[in-house]
Structures are given as structure tokens and as C-alpha cells.
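Collaborator request log, item 7. Partner lab (contact: R.S.) asked for a structural prediction of DUF2339 domain-containing protein to inform their binding assays.
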Amino acid sequence: MESFIGIFVLLLFGVPLLLWLRLESRFNKIIESLELLDYRQRKLKKLLENMQNKETAEPRQEKHPAPTIDEPKPEEKPTEAVVPVVQAEEVHEPVVKIPVTQIAEEHAETTEEPVPVKEELQEKAVLQSTGTAAEAEPATAEKPEKFAYSEPIYEKETRNFNYEKFIGENLFGKIGILVFIIGIGFFVKYAIDKNWINEVARTVLGFATGCGMLILAERLHKRYRAFSSLLAGGAFGVFYLTVAIAFHYYHLFSQTSAFVTLICITLFMSGVSILYDRSELAVTALVGGFIAPFIISTGTSDIVTLYTYISILNLGMFALAMYKKWGGLPVIAFAFTYIIIGLTVLNDGTANPTPSLPAQMTCFTTLFFLIFQLPVFYILKSESTPRMNKWLMCVIVGNSFLYFLFGNFFVHGLLFDFEAGALVNLFIAAVNLALYLYLRIKPNVYAPLNSTLLALTITFISITPPVLFRGSTFLIIWAAESVVLLWLYIKAKSRVYEVGAMVMAALTLLYYFTSGTYEYGSAEGTTVPLFLNADFSTSIFVSLAILVFAILMHRFKNIFAEQSRFLVYTPYNAIMFGAGIFIAINAFINEFGARLNGDTAIAADFLATSTIFAASTVALRNRFKLADFKEWYVVMGGFITLLYMYCIWLFPEKREYTSTFLLWLTTAVIVFNLWYIIRGFLKIDWYRNELYAYFSVLATLVWVSAAKFLLLSLGSYSFSAGFSLSLGTAAFILMCLGMRIHSKPIRIVSLAEFGIVLAKLVLIDVWTMQAVGKIIVFISLGVILLTLSFLYQKLKNVLFGEEPEEKEEHHKDV
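Returned to partner:
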């Protein structure tokens, strides 16, 4: 009997509430119709009164102008007074010319039908005809009354965001609902602790609270639409929370009863959203529907039941979205569905795999692909908002690629004798091709949908052969084809070649980075020679093809910067250069890791990486000019310094002779690259003071790391004294350089390094260093400090010559 308590409570409160809401809605519609009729009646009455007032006012305006304009007619003296006035006006206002012979005619016309001119021109015309201002006063006073009319003035709407409205109306409401729900939870917990009410009464109280909020939301939905939606959403949140507590803590419901109760709540909320045309309530119901299985979860997973429920929920969501034109529902359902699939892969697919899981998930992922592809396609080809169209297009594209990812994962678990993942690619391409062909006979649809479906079809058809045959031949063909198509576009200027080159280059990069080309293993058991193998050759060929692609774009920069529609010079040229360099580095690292042993492989990796960076810096100095890409070169200087420190400090102390030799070559390359960057910055003089300090620190780090590597090469593994001596020497050199070029930032860095050395001597070396080390370090440091003190004393006028002058000027001003 207890298993049906939830359903009974829901029927007890839900059915009467639904009937009340329905009757209240009909009653409100009748009241709205009556109010509308009353409003229109008052509007018509006011309009009739205005028309009557206008008819009574018009005869009064016709009686006054006649005697005022007829008086000056007997006097025929305007010719003598008008001529000088007209000449004077030609000087000040050459645009307005009033001939003398037409003045009498104008007076005659004004008695019958006055001309709507500006008040200033009317006054001047009357003055010229009468000669006096007193006679013109009646005419100028009557005309504004004749032609005066009231015109509504509409203020320009401001598009500034109203933060006060957002906080007070939206944010405070959402926070209030959240706080209220948390308060209900605290109250229920407090009631449990005090034993005021039993479990059944607490559950009924929770449902009653939600119903009260829902009734209040219904009463306020006309005047306060946003607030009533928040109340309704909060009410259903209370329902979900009550069911969760009653199931997990009170054990009033069985799992089936709790699940049915949650489904009924979701359906009830969907009905309310349709009844009151509230998309936000539909979104809340959809989210609640997705979290319902997790609310009643007991730790055991039933894949078939879970995904059957999600399939039904998605189908119902699309029916509601197509009926009410709510495009936001598919986006939310898409996100939740694939998140749940990802959680299934992480939990059941890897931790607790079952034999039937791949087959079950293959069927369900295919069903979800069709559910999200076909209804979203239907919504897009009909009318929708531009903003929502962008999100739905993301669903179309993301659905294809996510199904490609999860479908291949589950199909591989079926253990076919062939690469069944190719069938997934062909299925995606076939569905998108069918939708594209359907749109060809349906004009006036969303324009980007056609091109997107065609692009998806070509993409997945092109991916199929490499997945089916697992060879590097297609990668080489695609890379070469992208370069050939780019060259044809440069020569023919055809958009087809441009799109083809872009698609083939994208497919080449996508397949290279997603396919595992190398198989790592011990170098002792391998017979494949270094560099002379298909894997390395393929990677180098792809890298060179991508770099040639980028070089052609740079060589014909005007075409791609001005004429290209898709392959725009910025940023695609820089992206292709970066991709080509990265593939080359990756090829050498993978080759050394697969063919060499231990320390030698790691040292070769560092040498290859630093050499490619240095070669790229020199070779691309005209493409990526330092004056235009200053920040990138600053970051590169820091990166190569950290790379060198990593290979010295985090490397095994005992090394083979080959690895030691390779690391010394790496040191030379790093020093050259850092020197080349610093030399370029000194030429352009960009942020001189800040960069002096920055590159001084980088040079010090390289110097100290090289000193450590030197001691390791000589067999000395203790670096305490070596650190103090190397850092002190670097500080001394920087101080001399700072004094030589009069750079205060360099001298500050030097003083900071001396401070580090002195602090190390006082805090560490005095207590731990051996006697010989103490003697050498203390004597050397003392000599260095004395030398610096002498240099400061000798060069104080040169270094600080400006300070006394500034102080004297300050005293004079005081």
C-alpha cells in the first residue's frame, strides 16, 4: 500500500489543481475579452469628441484674418518702401527673395488659403507689404493658430542594458526561489530531528508547499509574467525534491513508484507550459525529466530501461518543440543526452564492461543520431529565429561528429572481422546526403543548412577509406591534393578549388591528429632503421605539404587577403605554418621515442625541438616580423628557456656520452635562439626597460642551467657551491653590463641576484657546506662585491648624475 502513496498524493492535489487551472484560464479569457471591448468603446468615444471639437473650432479661424488683411489694400505705397528692404535682404539672406509685384497677390491669397511657410518669412513678407509692424501683428498672430497641430514625439529607445531591472526582476527572483527551496529542505530536516510529523505527513507537506507556489504563480501570471514563471519552476523543484527525499530517506516509494511519480510531474509541467505558453516551464520540465533517473538511482544500472526512457523523453520534447516552435528544447536535450552517454562510457564502458553493452549502446546511439538529426532538420527548414538557427546548426554538426565518436567506440566492441567504423561514417554521410537532396527540391529554406549538410556528407565520405584500410597512403594523397587544389585556385580563381583545398587540408590535419600512426616499443627488438620507415616519411611529407600550403598563401597574399571568401589570409596562414611546424616536431619526437633508447631518445627530442624552433625563427623572420608579433617572440623566449631548464634540471644525473653530446648541442642551439630574439628586440626598441629585466632573467636562468650541466658532465653532482658561484658571476656580468649601457633595470636584476646569493650563504651554506666550498664561495663573493662597490663609487657621477641636479632644482623651487 505504501508504494502507491506517491501516486495517490499526486492525484489528490494534481487533478483538482489542473481542473482549477483550466477553469481559471477560461474565466480569465472571458474577462480579457470584456476589458478589450470596454477599452475600444472608450477609444471610439474619445475619437468622436475630438472630431466634434475640430468642426466647431474651424469657423472661428476664418472670421479673423479678413479685416486685418483688407485694410492695407487702399494704400498703394509699398513700391517705395519695398525696394531697399529687398536689397538689404539679398545681402543677409540671399536664399529668400520676395518680388515687389507679387506681394499684393500673396495678400489676396492668404485670406483664402495661407501657405505653410516659416514664421520668420511670413513676418518679413508682411513687413515689406505694409511697412509697419503694427499692421502685420494680426496676420502673424492668426496663422500659427490656423496651422498649429500637435504631433506625437517618440523618444528614441535606448538599448543600454538595465542592470537594475535584471538584478531586481530576474536575478533576485532566481536566488529567492533557490533559497526558498533550500529553506524547505532545512525545514524538513528540522522536522525530522524534532519528530514533529511523521514521514507521510512531511511528504504531503512538501507537495502542499509546491501546490501553493503553483497556485500563487497562476494568480500572478498576467501582471508578473517572469516572477510567476519563477514561482512555477520553483514549485516543480519542490516536487522533485520531495520525491527524492521520500524515496531515499523515508523509503515511502518503491523505485518504480517514484519513477512513475516523477514522470507524472514532468508531464504535468509540460501541460502547464503548453496551457500558458511558457517555454521556460518547458525547459524546466525537460531538465527535470533528464535528472529524474538519477534522483531515484540506487547504484545499479539498467541500460535498456534508462535509454528507452531517454528516447521517449527526446521524442516528446521534439513533438513539443515542433508544435510550439520552441527551438531551445532540442539544444538542451542534445546536451543532456550526450552527457549521459559519456557518463555511461566512463562508468560501464571502461570500469564495468558487459558483453551486451556494445550492441545495446550501438543501437541507442544510432537512434539518438536520427532523433536529433531529423527533427532539428524539420525545425530548421521552417521558420525560426536567426539566433536559434545558429544553435540548431551546432546541434546538426555536433550530432554527426559525436555519433562518429561514440558510434566508432561501441562498434569496435562488437569484434567484427573488418573495420566496422567505416559503416558508421557511411551511415552519417548517407543520412546527411538524403537530407541535402530533399532540400534541393524545397526552395526558401534556411540557406546555410544546404551547404552544411553537403560539407558533412563530403567530410564523412572522405574519412571512410582511411578508417576502412588503416593506411598512410590516403593521408599522403590528401596532403598532396590540398596543395594541388590551392595552386589551381591561385591560377583559376575558382571557388570550387578554394573550398576543395580548404576541405582537404582540414581532413588531412583531422586524420593525422586523430589516428595513431606510431607503435612504441623497445628499440632492442626493432629492425626498422631510424628515419627510413613509412611512419616518419608520412609525417614529414604531411608537414612539408602543410608548410608549402602556407608558403603559397603567403606568396600570393593579395589573393587570399582580398579575393578569398573561405581561405582568408588571416588567420589561416598563421594556423597552417603552426600546424606544419608542430607536425615536424611531433614526427621527430615519435621517431626518436620509437627507435632510440632511454636518455638518448630524450636528449634527441630536446635537440630536435630546439633546432626546429630556431630554424623557424630565422626562416620565418620576414613572415612573422618581430615588430608585428612582439608578444609571440617574448613568449617564445620564455618557452625555450623553460625547455632548456627542464632538460637539465629534471633529467637523470648520470647520462651516456651520446646524450651528453646531444645536450651540449641543444645548449648551443638554445643560446643562439635566445641571442637572436634579444638582438631583434634591441633593434626595434620596444618596451626597452621591461624587456631588459625580462631577458636578463632568462639569460641568468640559461647561464645557471649550463653551469649545472657542466658540473654534471665533469662528474660533480653537488651543485650548492656551483649555484652560488654561477649566480654570483651572472649578477656581476649583469651589473657591469647595466653600468656600461646605463640601464637601471639590469642593475636592479643584478642586485636581486646578489641578494639571493647572500641569503643562501647566510641561511644554508654556512651550516651545510664543506670547508673548502665555504672558503671558495665566500672569497669569490667578497671579491665580487668589493669590485662592484668600487665601480659604484667610481661611476656614481655617471650613473646618478641626474639626481643631484633634480634635488637642487627642487630646493630652488621651494
